[in-house]
Amino acid sequence: MAGRSRFDPARLRRRLQSLPRRAGGLRLGLVAFLRDRTERPRAWARPVTGPVLEVVTGTAWAALLLAVPALIAGLALGWTELVVAGWLVLALLLVCVAFVLGRHQLSAALDLSRDRVVVGERANGAARLLNRTGHRTLPLSVELVVGQGRARFDLPSLAPRAEHEELFAIPTSRRAVLTVGPVRTVRADPLGLLRREQELTEPELLYVHPRTVRVEGSASGLVRDLEGETVRKLSDNDVAFHALRGYVPGDDRRNIHWKSTARTGTLMVRQFEETRRSHMLVVLSTRLDDYVSEEEFEAAVSIAASLGVRTLSEGHTLTATTSSRVLHTGSTKRLLDQYSGVDYEPAARPLSEVARGVARDHPGASVAVFVCGSLTEAAEIRRARRHLALDLRTIVVRAEPSAETTLRQMGDLDIATVGSLDDLGSTLRRLSR
Questions:
Q1: Is residue 35 part of a domain?
Q2: Taking the model in full, what pTM does it have?
Q3: Residue 33, domain member (yes or no)
Q4: Which of 178, 251, 275, 282 could be 147's S-S partner, Cβ–Cβ 3.0 to 4.6 Å?
Q5: What's the count of helices (H) and strands (E) in the chain, helices before strands?
């Protein structure tokens, strides 16, 4: 029947594959909702409950909840075994208190060899602990917080003023902004009922940048606006000719003016003025429903980051956004820092609503690139294009790992499906022709 969309088994299969991820997203949203709703009462109770909760473990609370009712029931029923068991558990908890009393006279320093790495690169560091006292310390446990996990190692007995260095490696298999530290000492009883921590250092941030590829010569053809007005900023690659100058190593040989070179006997190259509308807009979809898998989302982040880095390295104006916020683009380092922390956003809007917002907030852009996943519907892409200016060149890049890299047109809209990040450069070179 006319007007009815065709059944696509592959798209249905991808949607079924994404159901577990959507369920996980709903769970995370529920946890965030409950955390927000209980923040005020938890803040009121924190001065009282905080010190207690920091020492008493869940096992100790469970033992206490069993011991008190057992003691009460034993006294009420005259059941001697329950009374003995209740008093025994309470006495055991009192004995465990002795293991967590006192403070360590240690100082520590946390040293990260690099605070920015790319996915897959090694991130090494060292924790140095010093015994500041005039007597030997006892062996104890030391923990290092890394993101949501903890690394634990045993600190041997240290002589007065002695130092111990512990080397560690941080896994960087996934893009993230990791909080490394603090280094903390741990006092605990042998049964693990009570636990007392003492922080020795401040936490530090480790940025695991997304993988990017060098996109040779692609952004120039996309960003340059042939009808833009010129400004006084000079450039080595644009359409508004300004003057000739002497060749310096590193200049593009395509800009050599051979007639002037033959006349003067020295290599002369063309110099241009940049156009006012050399402005690229890169929009990354952070909507969970647009992606089949984590691998697909990571590929989309890498594509957006590669485009942003290339645009900034060429000196063009860049506006980089996600579905819900605008990223800072002052430098490539800061841009990659922000892409390291990009994740699915609960308030992420569909692509058409995002397009309406960026068209209103960034009217000076000359090229808009929307990066999304394979589940983004063609109808949604068409609706997004209607909100953009007619003279704004619009490109949609769909990340779909392991798929065939293709390029097609939908009216005045270019749609590229990128199956491998390494194909991004060749795809954009085809678009810039």
A1: no
A2: 0.71
A3: no
A4: 178
A5: 12, 18
Q: Which long-range contacts (CB under 8 A, 24 or more apart) does 381-384 make?
A: 381/351, 381/410, 381/413, 381/415, 382/410, 382/411, 382/413, 383/351, 383/352, 383/355, 384/351, 384/352, 384/354, 384/355
Question: Is the pLDDT at 220 greater than 60, yes or no?
Answer: no
Q: What is the pLDDT of residue 229?
A: 42
Are residues 308 and 182 both part of a single domain?
Answer: no
Does residue 260 sit within a domain?
Answer: yes
Residue 69: asked if its preceding bond is cis (omega within 30°), the reply is no
> Does 186 share its domain with 205?
yes
Reading the block at residue 19, the tokens are: 């159901």
- Mean pLDDT value across residues 85-109: 83
Q: What is the dihedral of CA 111, 115, 119, 122, to 10 degrees?
A: -30
Do 298 and 391 sit in the same domain of this protein? Answer: yes
Q: How many structural domains is the chain composed of?
A: 4
* pLDDT at site 50: 44
Report the Cα–Cα distance between both ends of the chain, in Å, rounded: 39
Asked if residue 308 and residue 245 are part of one domain, the reply reads no
Statement: residue 231 has pLDDT above 50: no
Range of the domain at 124: 106-209
Domain assignment present for residue 131? The answer is yes
The one-letter code for the residue type at 165 is E
Q: Where are the beta strands (DSSP E) in 22-139?
A: 106-112, 116-118, 123-131
CATH number at residue 305: 3.40.50.410
Taking only the tens place, the pLDDT of each residue in 302-315 is 999 999 999 998 88
Q: Above 70 in pLDDT, residue 360? A: yes
Q: Which residue has the higher pLDDT, 23 or 273?
A: 23
For residue 425, the model assigns a pLDDT of 87
Q: Average of pLDDT values for 363-379?
A: 89
